[in-house]
Structure formats: C-alpha cells, structure tokens
Amino acid sequence: MKTKFLIVYILLFFISCSPKSNLEISVKDIKKEGITILQNKSNINTDEVFDVAKVSLSELEKKIINWNYPNFNSSNLLPHIDFNNNFKISKTSSFFNNVSQNIYKKDILIHEGNIIFIDDYSNIVVLDENLKLSNKYQVHKKKYFSNYHLKFSIIANNNILYVSDNLGFIYAYNLNSNEVIWKNNLGVPFLSNLAIYKDNIYVINSNGKIFSINSLNGNQNWSFETGSDTAKSYNAFKLAVANDKLIFSNDFGIITCIDLAKQSIIWNLTMEPSSVYSDNNLFEIASPVIVNNNLFLVSSYGKFQKLDLDTAKIYWSINDSSSLTPLINNEIIATANHEGFFSIYNKNSGKVLYKKNIINYLRSNKIKTKSTKIENIFVASNKFYLITNDGYIITIDSKNLESINYQNISDSFKSNPAIANNILYLVGDKETIYKIQ
Questions:
Q1: pTM here?
Q2: CA neighbor of 295 nearest in space, from 276, 277, 311
Q3: Are 162 and 169 in contact (CB under 8 A)?
C-alpha cells in the first residue's frame, strides 16, 4: 500500500512541476512560448495501395503572375501551375545573419513582381525579381517581441499587404508608399490564415473568435466567438471563403459555416476522431478547400470528407490524416501528410487509387530521414511536388507514379511555396530566399 501511495505521489509531483503551458495557456504564454503541439502517432496510414499507375491532371496548366495568398486564393484551391524546371537554383540571398529559431513557418507571396515576406524581427521585406532588396519596414519595435516567436499571416491585394500576427495586431501596408495605412491592436494573438473577400478581411484569434475587418479602413464589422481549448495548435485555426460562404475551424474541432449574404450561421459540424485513430493528439486541420459548391476537409482526427457547402451533407468520408492542403482537380484528389504518405483518391467516390510512403522511399535510397516531414504539396506541369522540412523537393510524375525524383536544396525550408512566371520561391534557413527555375 505504501508503495502504491509513493508512486501516486511521485506522479503528482511531476505533474505539478510540469510547465504551465501544458496545462493552461494564457495570452502571454502563447506569445512567449508558442503553441503546444503533441506528436501524432496515428496508425491509419500503414498500408500502401497501387490500384493505378498514372492519373490524369486534365485541367490546363495556368501561368501564374501573382501569388497573393500562401494557399493561392481565398478558397484555398491550388491551381495546376505552369512550372518546368531542372532544380536549378538561379539565385539565393541571405539578408540577416542573426536569426531566431522561430517555430512558425513563414508566409511568402509574389505580388506585382515583388517577393514579400516578414522576417523574425518584424521587418516587412520586399524584394525585386532578382532578389535585390527593394524595401524593408519594421512594424514592431524589438522591445515588444524580444521574448516571443513571431507568427505572421499575410495576403496581398491591389498593392496593399494585409498582416495579422500573434501579438494581436492586424494592419494594412501600402507597398507603393511603404507605409502602414491602418493598424488595430485587438489584444489576443491571431493564429489563422488571412482571407479577403469583397473588401472584408477574415481572421481567427487564439480564443476561436473570428473577425470581419473592413479592408479599406481597418474597422471591425463583426466578430463571433466559438470557444477554444487551453492547450492548442495554431494548425487548428483555418478558414476559407467562397460563394458568400465563410468556413472556419477552432481547436475543439468545430467547423462553422456563415452565410455572408444573409449574415447568419447556417451549420456547425464537430469533427470526431476516427475509429482507427489511436492518439489523443491536439486537433489540427488542413486548410478547407472550396470547389464549386463542395467543401473538402481533412484533419489529424483521421477523416477526409467531401461535403455539400450549403448543408454540410457528407458525400463520402474516408480514413486519412493530414494538416496539409489537399490538391483537387476535375477527377482526383491528392493529399500528403507529415509522416510521408502521399495518397490519390477518386474525387467523386473517395476511393483510394494510390498510396505510398515517400519518406520510406527516401530511406530506401539511403537518405537520412529521422526528422524528415512533408510540409507542402503542389501540382505543376503534370507532376506532383512534395517539399520537406529538411530541404528536399520531391517530384512524382502523374503519368508514371513510380517515377519519383528528389533533390536536396537546403538544410531546411520554412515557408509555403510561391510560384510565378515559371519560378519557385521558398524561404530557407538563415532567411535565405531560394529562386528555383
């Protein structure tokens, strides 16, 4: 009996001495320590499937001039991009030698010939097509964030850069005059992506509260709070806007749809862990994708679903786990997850057509993959591109899915891919910008 009591006492002692951020996270903790994210140990991606050897990417390739959103547009639908390359790095440029070990990925955009991102010291950095510095503007003084990892979300529209951050600010920066034209401090960290739709900006804070902000003057139109857990992942807060429908999520796994024309909530959907989901991980979700009147949702809870945008009717639901934005065209859907699984599904039925662990493929080719994770996926010139955290770019030929090539470009990649004029841009380690063509 004494032994049992001693064990319980020791456990309680360790729990009481655990960092506060694991049990209760205040606004200050979120700013200072980042977001608590647990390891995903889901076992739903253990089987590989090879029902097809090739797939059709029938939609025409698009020559992109601007990349105004990290996920390309407000509906998060990634296009079939015109991008033929030989993994040639035509230019790299390092602007800052002393960079922080920021836990957050950066957003990088291409707007009117400018490459735009925000560095770890709150500088809006604007480069020209040759990666020469055109302008740099520091939004916050260092004393306000010296103890914090900064997270910025950015979008661009008509030469205005809109920014939200985890200090609780949202602001608009004129790229022509190089000045902030309006700025609001709403107090609670913003964690979601940004979207602009019909002159209004939408963003979610760490309390699960969504805001509608007038893009012209920064005034708040309305807000709606859905609630939030104590320990949270910033990957739980995602949104998409299209067809006058605003879709957004919180870290309870609640998906909400607001009809912007009627200014009313038309449905709520609570994501539940799949029956084959074996982890008590925090909820993470891929950016919702709206295609015509369909909504596609995939999350760390082990379900990938196709729904009716107006009614939330579920057309199909399959076992998959990811927080990466899926690729969708007329016939197929492609997904990837951090653990390395690349999957292709029939768009209409949800049937799995192809599944392969790409990290295992790298491992079989003697590549060290102990900490490798897939971080981004896009499709270009009939090839699927997967980008890893440790600097690999992997291509899979849609016309021969067993044709897989890879190239190590950097020690790490820390941003979304931005593609324009047949050139790929990525932020790497030490604030290096990679221009690949």
A1: 0.88
A2: 311
A3: no
| 144 within some domain | yes
CB 358 within 8 A of CB 337: no
Half-sphere exposure of 60 (CA within 13 A, CB side): 3
DSSP symbols for 240-300: EEETTEEEEE-TT-EEEEEETTTTEEEEEEE----TT----PPP-BPPPEEETTEEEEEBT
Residue with tokens 């005034």: 219
Q: Please, what are the averages of pLDDT over each run of 10 residues along the chain (437 residues)?
A: 38 34 40 42 69 89 93 96 83 66 91 94 92 93 82 97 96 96 94 96 95 97 87 86 97 95 95 69 91 96 96 96 95 96 97 97 94 96 96 96 94 94 90 89
Asked, for residue 199, whether it belongs to a domain, the answer is: yes
Cα–Cα dist 385/396, whole Å: 7
Tokens of 53: 């050897």
Q: Find the CATH number of the domain harbouring 165.
A: 2.130.10.10
What domain count does the chain have? 1
Structural domain range at position 314: 49-436
- Using the Cα atoms of residue 336, residue 414, residue 206 and residue 289 in order, give the sign of their dihedral: negative
The span from the CA of 43 to the CA of 329, in Å, is 28
In a domain, residue 151? The reply is: yes
In-domain check, residue 20: no
